[in-house]
Design brief:
The complex is a heterodimer of chains A (170) and B (502). With 170 residues, chain A is α/β, with parallel strands linked by helices. Helix content of chain A is 38%, strand content 16%. In chain A, strands 2-1-3-5-7 form a five-stranded parallel β-sheet, with helices on both faces. Chain A has a two-stranded antiparallel sheet with strand order 4-6. In chain A, helix 2 crosses helix 7. The longest helix of chain A has 13 residues. Chain A is globular. Helices cover 40% and strands 19% of the residues of chain B. Chain B has 17 helices and 18 strands. Classes of the chains: A alpha/beta (170), B alpha+beta (502). Chains A and B meet through helix 1, strand 1, helix 4 and helix 5 of A and helix 4, helix 8, helix 9 and helix 17 of B.
């Protein structure tokens, strides 16, 4: 173990330079984010991820944000275990009928001020799964959405750009 | 030795590819059920259809597979689950989706229908769902000093939703009851009437982590139905994708199991290997998870120019770093303390449930769809199926480590023997009804796909994730373990919620 740790110390970090915040996302956020609320939270946001019906592809790429290449925590963004600790809900999937109530309750359990980021093409309008008897539609059909990050699934850099624009929006 | 179809008396269905399909009467169905419960055959799938129920069985010794169908003119059929436990949840799902009643099924609670749909039996005789339904009755637990811990559907990590109801005596779990279905998207309903290419996109999003494997199983089924010949280059490219997908998932899982024992160093290093694998996949096929790359008839995209060095670098890099990580895993006593002898799956249960992938292989069951029934190009490639006997979390980690080594060798062989030529066969499916069955080996086990085509449209498609036969076993392995070891057991199984809920 010592050797691996030592090599880790001697090597250049794998972490890559941050991408610039997404311009489109910034424009979308300008209308949605309350500046006063943002100032209170500063440059640190706690994120609660909610899978409301995804195929788990988006989860895989959200997971990747924590790896050495993207290192999400260097920006003051971190994932938390409870909606009660969260400032941001990161919601994936078409919202299934079976998850609608759970998503609404998770939103209600998140203290104000809070933002909802819908991740992936399905989260916009149900994507490939819209029209199914088992699907409500996009995330905004259940809770108000502040920002949407497109992609199937979005690449980690796209996710990073979208999340960074949350920090830059003020 | 009698072949499987000789043993099943019934009417052989024409224009069914991939394996024979036999329509049987009630006696034939009961015979098949008794063969399953006696352990002579393994259940590979059980699903509803309009006015019928199909099961796929495997005779492991003879490596034969057959689909057996019973027509249900009165919307009833003799329950398989009555004598063969692995069928219980599948039959509960059949009743939810089709309204066909498995007569004698010991557990008649709904499984996928959690009471939130507007319709009942959406794929069968649809009717408006009643407004008020009785709350779900969890299994009763009686005894002194027992307490319950309800978890989910929204979990604490970045994972899929599902509900776990633990009953514990102090630290010790005496029962886990799973309740799934939260991410049921109605994929099979959406597939009915879809074109083959639209359905392939849906198949590739049944479980995002197994996108290649699902698309491959679906393609195998359609190709079997339409008697489509796939070009040799496409066959090799599919295998390259499938092995990259296996590598990425195994790296992720090995790290995540260690992380659930709070050993984040392994997690960080495995995360790097996983990311490098996804980047190599992206460089080759233009998508990190290789979604929509496998299509019936071949593949959608050829290898990108100059991507071979990316794959070669991945192989070299992995071979350089993996031994030290394996040593780290094996020599860290505090980690071994958590994984060795935790969550033991008995070999009999693995065999009874036909558990695929690392879950089965860590408990002595060697089945792998790449070998049985086998599909190209694996017959001409040299690889082994690692099998262990101890059945604990540690064994499931080791099977993954051994499979990583096998996949590295496979990728090397695939690239060394990559044929030139076309990557997709254009095919027409005009004229009547065709059916086909396909299997593909995903990282977590065998995926089964069955299609009935009416011309070039899907009339019925069923996709069976390996998790159907693994989720019930997770309930079995946690018994007698402490609550804190559940994340380890769960991660060592890494069942798919989306693939199961469909």
């Amino acid at each position: 173990m010592r050797r691996i740790l030592f090599e880790g110390l001697m090597r250049r970090p794998l972490t890559e330079a941050p991408p610039v915040a997404d311009d489109d996302a910034l424009a979308e956020l300008a209308a949605n984010v309350d500046r006063a609320a943002r100032r209170r939270l500063g440059r640190s946001l706690s994120i609660r991820e909610v899978d409301a019906g995804s195929c788990n592809g988006c989860e895989l790429e959200i997971h990747a944000l924590n790896n050495a290449f993207y290192d999400l925590e260097r920006f003051g963004l971190r994932f938390v275990a409870s909606p009660r600790h969260a400032d941001v809900l990161l919601v994936t999937g078409p919202v299934t009928r079976n998850m609608r109530e759970a998503l609404a309750r998770t939103y209600d359990a998140t203290p104000d001020p809070k933002w909802v980021v819908a991740v992936g093409d399905c989260a916009l309008d149900g994507g490939l799964f819209s029209g199914s008897y088992a699907v409500v539609g996009g995330v905004s059909a259940v809770v108000p959405v502040d920002l949407h990050i497109p992609g199937c699934p979005p690449r980690p850099t796209q996710l990073l750009k979208g999340l960074l624009s949350l920090l830059e929006a003020s | 030795m009698a072949t499987l179809t000789d043993m099943i008396s019934g009417e052989l269905v024409q224009r069914h590819g991939g394996c024979p399909r036999v329509v049987v009467n009630e006696d034939g169905w009961r015979f098949a059920t008794s063969q399953l419960s006696a352990g002579y055959w393994t259940l590979l799938g059980l699903w509803g259809d309009t006015g019928a129920v199909h099961m796929t069985v495997l005779e492991e010794g003879a490596r034969e597979i057959a689909v057996i169908t019973i027509l249900c003119s009165h919307d009833r059929f003799p329950s398989v689950g009555a004598v063969h436990a692995p069928a219980v949840r599948l039959e509960r799902a059949i009743h939810d989706l089709y309204g066909i009643l498995p007569v004698g099924l010991p557990d008649t609670r709904p499984w996928l229908d959690l009471g939130f749909w507007d319709v009942e039996h959406p794929l069968g005789k649809r009717r408006v769902a009643p407004a008020k339904r009785a709350p779900y009755a969890f299994l009763p637990t009686e005894g002194e000093n027992l307490h319950q811990i309800p978890v989910g559907p929204v979990h604490a990590g970045i994972i899929e939703p599902g509900h776990f109801r633990f009953t514990a005596n102090g630290e010790t779990v005496v029962r886990l009851e799973e309740r799934l279905g939260y991410v049921h998207k109605g994929i099979e309903g959406l597939m009915a009437g879809a074109t083959v290419d639209q359905a392939a996109r849906l198949a590739g999003r049944t479980s995002g982590d197994s996108s290649v494997a699902f698309a491959l199983a679906f393609a195998h089924a359609v190709e079997a139905a339409g008697e489509v010949q796939v070009p040799p280059r496409a066959i090799h490219l599919r295998a390259l994708m499938a092995e990259l997908e296996r590598l990425a998932n195994h790296f992720g899982d090995i790290g995540a199991v260690c992380n659930d024992a709070s050993f984040s160093l392994m997690h960080a290093h495995c995360g790097v290997l996983r990311e490098r694998t996804l980047r190599a996949a992206d460089a080759c096929f233009g998508h990190r998870l290789m979604m929509d790359a496998v299509l019936p008839g071949g593949v959608a995209r050829d290898l990108a120019a100059d991507c071979i060095p990316h794959v070669a670098a991945l192989l070299q890099d992995t071979r350089a770093t993996l031994p030290a990580l394996i040593e780290l895993y094996d020599n860290t006593a505090s980690l071994q303390d958590r994984t060795v002898s935790t969550g033991i799956l008995r070999a009999e249960l693995a065999r009874q449930f036909g558990a695929g992938g690392y879950v089965g292989r860590a408990s002595g069951r060697a089945f792998d769809a790449r070998k049985t029934p086998g599909y190209r190009p694996y017959g001409q490639l040299d690889f082994n199926i690692p099998v262990l006997e101890t059945g604990d979390v540690n064994a499931r980690v080791w099977v993954r480590i051994r499979e990583v080594e096998q996949s590295l060798g496979l990728i090397e062989q695939i690239l060394n023997t990559l044929p030139v030529g076309a990557i997709r066969t254009e095919f027409g499916l005009a004229g009547g009804t065709r059916e086909g069955l396909g299997l593909a080996e995903a990282f977590r086990g065998d995926v089964l796909a069955w299609v009935r085509l009416e011309g070039d449209r899907i009339a019925r498609c069923h996709l069976r994730d390996p998790s159907w036969f693994q989720w019930p076993l997770l309930e079995a392995v946690i018994e007698g373990n402490i609550v804190a070891d559940f994340p380890l057991c769960n991660k060592s199984f890494n069942c798919s919620y989306s693939g199961h809920d469909l």
